[in-house]
Amino acid sequence: MSIARWNQMNDALKARSAQADVDVLFLGDSITEMWDKGAWDSHFGKYRAANFGIGGDHTGNVLWRLKNDGMDKLRPKAVVLLIGVNNFGLCGERPEQVAQGVKAVVAQLRQLYPDTKILLNGILPFKQSAQDPARADVKAVNREIAKLDDGSHVFFRDYGARFLQPNGDIAKETMPDFLHLTPQAYNVWAEALAPDIEKLVR
């Protein structure tokens, strides 16, 4: 993503923060930003949900946004967080570094929104083959960040298996580039998220 586009999106989200009318806050990178409208409207339309995903973001970007973008004005009932995959490809980080970045984001969310429930998504599998080393890296991060689940404010969910074929590979019909989701895959994710979000916003 160009710096100009990132700044434009960030400015729009600052303005959205100032409205302070968000019950369910989706936070993350391009996988969050690119939510299919049909899946979003049908599953989350009943909430005051806001999409704060920005393509290309890694944990450091999200941490900066939480500290500098007026997001303290928000008081969401729930935050749906998916972040970390770009730490591999764009930052060249190892699993332990990625996990530390996710932990820092969760810690900042807890500080910013002490009464908010955080639905922490495990990083989704990427790369076509189940044998690709990137798959093991994702599993290593998810094992570590799963420990953040405290059963009261942070709830970890790994929905990744829903996007895999029986042999563990990823189909182009699910992720055309073996990273980003198709509309069909967004429906799969939405159906997985919906009951968990419903519990958290009660």
TrEMBL record:
SGNH hydrolase-type esterase domain segment(s): 26-186
InterPro entries from the UniProt entry: Ester_Hydrolysis_Enzymes, SGNH_hydro, SGNH_hydro_sf
Superkingdom, natural source: Bacteria
Any single Pfam family the record assigns to this protein: Lipase_GDSL_2
Coiled coil region boundaries: none
Name of this chain's protein: Mucin-desulfating sulfatase
